[in-house]
Write a structure and sequence with these properties.
- The chain is α/β, with parallel strands linked by helices.
- The chain folds into two domains: 2-155 and 318-333, Glycogen Phosphorylase B (Rossmann fold); 158-315, Rossmann fold (3-Layer(aba) Sandwich), CATH 3.40.50.
- It is built from eleven helices and 13 strands.
- The chain has a seven-stranded parallel sheet with strand order 3-2-1-4-5-6-7, with helices on both faces.
- Helix 8 links the parallel strand 12 (266-269) and strand 13 (284-287).
Length: 335
Amino acid sequence: MKAAILAPVAWRTPPRHYGPWEQVTSNIAEGLIKLGVEVTLFATGDSITAGKLEAICEQGYEEDRTQNAKVLECLHISNLMEKANKFDIIHNNFDFLPLTYSGLIKTPIITTIHGFSSQRIIPVYKKYNSIGNYVSISNSDRSPELNYLATVYNGLDTKDFEYNAYPDAYLLYFGRIHPDKGTAEAIDIAKKSKRKLLIAGIVQDEGYFKEKIEPQLNDQIEYIGSAGPEKRNLLLGNALALLHPINFNEPFGLSVAETMLCGTPVIAFNRGSMPELIKHEETGFLVNTVDEAVEVVECIKNIKRQDCYNWATAQFSCDKMVADYLTLYHQILGY
């Protein structure tokens, strides 16, 4: 089987630090290669893959801001679509724009919907309902207007994460600094529970960081910048718990799965996909307010870290994800 895997071109695939869609796309591509699929990854020129790499730009538009994002996206997607007849199947990880080519080519497209940036993009998905082969990344992140082939949870390479049975006493916030992700709420939880908090992630909202986060930084509340893979393992594994007080219906939440793979429980606001990722009172706690989160901080000692690791390994491994996708490929192709 020859498969074309279409990645975004905001960041490198896999990303150096931030880039959840790029990370999942990389995991899909590399996992398929291990199963004997002939993979061509369409991504940025600095991307890393064991398969063939096709690129129209050396770096992503978030890493080289001199580039125009829309121009790069158009050149990138058209580069694949003009070569579509070379592949048995195309796996689209690039949102809705590639669907506009799907009626013009013969190669079937399977589209992983990594989330809806707005309800206004639904009409594009809806137009291609009959040929879109849509896959959701959680049962919670589905539109009633769309036809879905399956739900496939995002998968991580479990070898990239190190289980730690003996954590430190600090709480961790790990993600982009943005109101949606609840950075300020994490600070409130740490202060009220009188715990040290480490904050790691890119600043996505400068105004929010300057107004809500930076003034509260001190010896107890520490911002350590973005964290790459090596730093990530230490941070996640040594944390007493991850604070994930999201203010939106998050489609998945890679950091939640990554944290549990290190044996670390998660305290999250009960929104979006969180009930699918976290087993309440077994791998963490689902709460609704800052005060409820503060209450359960003291209950973290009752969570068995081995249970967190076992759950995440069984549900969110790269091997499981890739096997699920390969089954869908065969279903679409009829063999």
